Known about the structure:
By secondary structure, this protein is an alpha/beta fold. The chain has two domains: about 10-185, P-loop containing nucleotide triphosphate hydrolases (Rossmann fold, 3-Layer(aba) Sandwich); about 205-245, no CATH class. About 40% of the residues lie in helices and about 20% in strands. It has nine helices and nine strands. The chain has helices at about 20-35, 50-55, 75-85, 110-130, 150, 190-195, 205-210, 215-220, 225-245; strands at about 10-15, 40-45, 65-70, 95, 135-140, 155-160, 165-170, 180, 185. The strands form two sheets. Strands 3-2-4-5-1-6-7 form a seven-stranded mixed β-sheet, sandwiched between helices. It has a two-stranded antiparallel sheet with strand order 8-9. Helix 3 runs parallel beside helix 4 (about 110-130).
Amino acid sequence: xxxxxxxxxxxxxxxxxxxxxxxxxxxxxxxxxxxxxxxxxxxxxxxxxxxxxxxxxxxxxxxxxxxxxxxxxxxxxxxxxxxxxxxxxxxxxxxxxxxxxxxxxxxxxxxxxxxxxxxxxxxxxxxxxxxxxxxxxxxxxxxxxxxxxxxxxxxxxxxxxxxxxxxxxxxxxxxxxxxxxxxxxxxxxxxxxxxxxxxxxxxxxxxxxxxxxxxxxxxxxxxxxxxxxxxxxxxxxxxxxxxxxxxx
Length: 248
């Protein structure tokens, strides 16, 4: 189950922690619903295999998942460019977890950080729009303000929020229909309304009467005083006429 409608282009998702399992759930849901491969460029070891196997309905679900791990900003940028050559219109999703994290490391000169991150973000965004494929990039909500380099190139920005009921997604075009909490899914009324539909309002007494579930006397009582009076008026008038004729 998921509550995110994937759209072509770059979606930036702020997650509570670098290894948030919300991404694993979204990836497994996408693999379950589509036939195309998912390409995942990982940073900070977010793509934990044990979490993926816990979220996938079966091990075969992960057959369409390709993971490439980066440990430096240069590796990350190279892998983004490699995905641009490998992905095509058949791809169902591109993922880049902790997309800005490695570009803040000390092994990358400060003067190069902004330009290299901007190049990677631009590649991901243009790739999604050119192939008409959704791209999901994540950044940590606790890592401070999201760089404008990312937000300016994102088609929409969402946030994963932790609540007492579990985690939910917030942002434009997203309606919370449930909460993930450890090993279960907490649903909401909008979720069931979308799944089963809604009905028009109805009077339960009228519905029970139409199905023959009420005592006829109760049905007469529900008709009210006005209905009883209307039924008795003709009889009273006839009796009055008869009495007048007898007196004359």
